[in-house]
Structures are given as structure tokens and as C-alpha cells.
Automatic annotation (TrEMBL):
It comes from the Eukaryota. PANTHER family: 3-HYDROXYISOBUTYRATE DEHYDROGENASE-LIKE 1, MITOCHONDRIAL-RELATED (PTHR43060:SF15). Residues 217-334 form the 3-hydroxyisobutyrate dehydrogenase-like NAD-binding domain. This is 6-phosphogluconate dehydrogenase NADP-binding domain-containing protein. InterPro entries: 6-PGluconate_DH-like_C_sf, 6PGD_dom2, 6PGDH_NADP-bd, HIBADH-like_NADP-bd, NAD(P)-bd_dom_sf. Pfam families: NAD_binding_11, NAD_binding_2. One of its GO terms (molecular function) is NAD binding. Residues 55-213 form the 6-phosphogluconate dehydrogenase NADP-binding domain.
Amino acid sequence: MPLLPLLLASLSRHSSSYSSISTPFSLLPPLGLILRRSMATAAASSEPISPANTRVGWIGTGVMGRAMCSHLISAGYTLTVFNRTLSKAQPLLDMGARLADSPSSLASQSDVVFTIVGFPSDVRHVLLHPSTGALSGLRPGGVLVDMTTSEPSLAAEIHSAAAAKGCHSVDAPVSGGDRGAKSGTLAIFAGGDKGVVDRLNPLFALMGKVNYMGATGKGQFAKLANQITIASTMVGLVEGIVYAYKAGLNVESFLSAISTGAAGSKSLDLYGGRILKRDFEAGFYVNHFVKDLGICLKECQSMGLALPGLALAHQLYLSLKAHGEGNLGTQALILALERMNNVSLENLGASNPAAP
């Protein structure tokens, strides 16, 4: 829409408010703010996002965030990053990213701010803290994109706070693990205004495939449903491995055989080989999965849902955390099943010592 008609339309929408006897003048938005918001909206809809017109901020450069952010730098975007642990941001600084000393400072230098941090409390702090949060430094028309797996209610709170400042927000958690982040093949679950999500697609496309799930919070609901599915799949995978081991099968051959059948899954592809190699390095932390499944259970309680597979998986992953294994990857679930059955696949080779 041309700028002038858009401005006139905006002024027309507010003119009745200014003439209304029932609305105190002091509570109405200042004319300058209306103009700035309208101009920002007009500019935002006039040309596609590109490195030439969009500055990006990134908060959270851990296992996932660092790889995702690197794709944006490689595509030529101007990136400003913030992370509490500087060493985790250093590889991105070496690629040309700028460093901010606070989320607020980062946002003041950005048009779109991405976050992917650990817990809902972290999301709230880096985005909504009144003095240091990103929203406090974001200009009207800016966009917050939270890619953390978090609470749908928090996504709604962020949306309301952003809208009050003339900004936008999208909840866009991801699935695909560290390999998906590195290869740019993540599944992205987006909730929010569809026009804003569509406009962000040039950025999302560098990280994976965006799937529009609906209004604010629906991206988080979709990711939680994804985690529920993965949880029971992981339990089935490690139970199958332990059973095959006790039955005397060559477990590596067994996993290869089932990978092309009905039991094949992304979890098997990502983690089957790692389990056999005792590679428990985190592509996704046990601690974070416990958090995700806890949020799922909380939502189930409010919905009146009974999901026993989810509850079982949560208990098994909690047992890993109780053993001090929270910083291992989710494939470490095999350790819980080994302890329960007094077996160990640690010395597993081509010849299965459990063979009868």
C-alpha cells in the first residue's frame, strides 16, 4: 500500500478517538507515534527482507544457536550477538559478528531479534526485563523471534508487550537437533501474525523449513506436541536396543535392518549410531528435554489430558538428571535402561557377549 494512503488511513482510524468525549486525551497515542508506526509498517511491507535492508540480532549462541546464526552471517546479514558466556560467541565474532553487552543494546542495533536460550525464565529475562531486555531497546516496527522451546502463555505475554510498543513477535521453536542446525534443515514451528511470519521467510529459509501453525502460542504448542512424540519414540528406540542386545543380536545390524522398515525414525537416524559408539555429547541436553516435557505435563494438566507415555519418558529422563547426567544428550536415555536391567552395552562389538 502506498505510504500516503496508509498514513491517512491510520490517522482516520484514530481521528474518532481524538474527538471522543469518553476517551481522556492523555490516554490516546501521540500523533508522532502513530506516524512512526505507520511509516514503519509501510516500510516493512514495501520490500523483501535482505542483507541490504535488515539488521539481525541473535541472543543465545549455544549448541543450536551458534550453528543457526552462522548461516545468517554466511548469507551476508549484519549480525549482532549476545551471550552470557563470551567463549560460546567467539566463533561467530571470528566470522564477523558484532558483540553487544546487553540484550537491550543488541536490539537497538537490530530490526529482527532472535532468541534461543535455555528456559522460560531466561526468555523472560532477555526479552522483557524493563531495563536490559531486548524489547526495551527495540524500535517500533521491530520483530522479536523466540526460537526457544517455552511456554505458550509466555509467547502470548511477549506478543502483548511487543504490540504495546508498536513491535511484533513470533514464537518459532525448532526441531532437528544439532545436525539439523548445522545443515540448515531444521523444522521451524511458527506462531503469530502470518504476514510477519511470511515476511521473515528469507531468514527462516537459511535455517530450515518454516511451518506456520497459527496465532501466537501455536508455534510453542506444536513444538510441545513434537517433544511428546519424540519422547515415546526415544523410549521405544532404547528399549528395542536393550532387547536386541539381550536376545544376542548384533545390535548394529539390527538397527540397520529396522531403519528402512516401519520402525525407522529420525531419532534412529540421529541417535542409533551415537548410542552404539557411547557418544553422549549433547546435540540437545537432557536438562532441556526434562524442561520441555515438564511444560508438556503442565499443559496436559490444564487440558485434562492423560498421556502416560509422556509421563514415563519424563520420569526416565529425570532419573538421568538425578545421576548427574543432565548435560549429556538425549540419547543418554540408554543409560537409564541399562541401569534398570543391569546390563551394559559399553563393550558392545561385532560379537555380542550377551548371545546365548
